Amino acid sequence: MDWWVSLPKIELHAHLNGSIRNSTLLELAKGLGEKGTIVFSDVEHAILKKDRSLREVFKLFDVIHKVTTELETVTRITKEVVEDFAAENVVYLELRTTPKKNDLKGISKRSYMEAVVKGVMDVTTVEVDLAPQGLGMGHPVNSGGRSNLCNGTARKQKIYVRLLLSIDRRESTESAMETAKLALEMRHLGVTGIDLSGNPVVGEWATFLPALQFAKEGGLSITLHCGEVPNKEEIQAMLDFLPGRIGHACCFGEEEWRKLESSKIPVEICLTSNILTESISSIDLHHFADLHKAKHPMVLCTDDSGVFSTSLSDEYALASSTFGLGRSKMFQLAQDAIEFVFADDAVKAELREIFYSAGRKLDSDVRN
Length: 368
Ligand code: 6MZ
Description:
Blueprint: H1 2-6, E1 9-15, H2 22-35, H3 40-48, H4 54-67, H5 71-87, E2 90-97, H6 109-121, E3 127-131, E4 149-150, E5 158-168, H7 173-185, E6 191-197, H8 205-217, E7 221-226, H9 232-240, E8 245-248, H10 254-263, E9 267-269, H11 271-276, H12 288-293, E10 298-300, H13 312-323, H14 327-336, H15 345-361, H16 363-366
Parallel strand pairs: 1-2, 2-5, 3-5, 5-6, 6-7, 7-8, 8-9, 9-10
Antiparallel strand pairs: 3-4
Helix pairs in contact: 2-3, 5-6, 7-8, 9-10
Bound molecules: N6-methyladenosine-5'-monophosphate.
């Protein structure tokens, strides 16, 4: 496993609340159980249950959301998630989350996102770069006197973090538009894109299209959960939209494959998630193999490292052993992801440097 941890990695598909540590989730649920806010045994049961089919996973997310409503909790889990990714040598992380309004608690989508930004800034184990030069200047969040928006922690190790705002498929057009506008207003705080996610059997593409179009025209990058369940019409409409990336792409027919192939839209691949949710029946039948053979752009990701008990290092090890790819090919795969990040050319150039020097250190392994 050590080699997979030491490999520098780029994570482009990680949901904040799905990446929460089990220990934190249980601790929070216990605390709320003692206060009588929730019934602890209900939460414990949902967390410890092994069933992670799509149906059960979305029930679990509802449980997690009940436990993570407070802004201090949002800040805490963000800090922990960034630190966990950094600890396994993720050098660039795009973290996505659904801004949540809670009128009873006086929480707006904006204050939710500010709590997320605070969590990134609270990271102490590594240096964090959250926004490009110039954009981060003059903002009240601690910038450590640097021109980039960063946590001011000078460490040997550094992680780039960029944020994507998710639109949940349960949302209305108005609510989706509010998220798109917020994303545009928070670009100086590291927000670079929009994600469409949520239970794939809920909602219609046409509901979200105006907000996605608006965000795209405003210069944000877009990634869509696409084909997590069979839905030919929606998959085709999503590909026609030409998003910057798509997630999953599990249930594609011949026609959709051809369209995807000619579009060259990069695919975020989440192996463990796809198997546990039963979107793919068995790992050796996963479309990773076909995409790799066709040299289609793709990137390995975790999706929900907490919910699926995985890590990005585990995903690389799994792809290598399942599809018989040696370290050199896996290094190349990790490096190729630089081209698909939703960040500017300066960040890409720095990531190339990081991979170049890591490649020299891992040299003898990479040649195997
Ligand atoms: C679709 C998913 C997902 O936003 O509260 N989410 N959407 N497919 C998946 N595959 C398993 N995994 C996570 O993180 C949790 C939310 O991310 C989306 C769901 O909307 C879920 O409620 P945040 O940080």
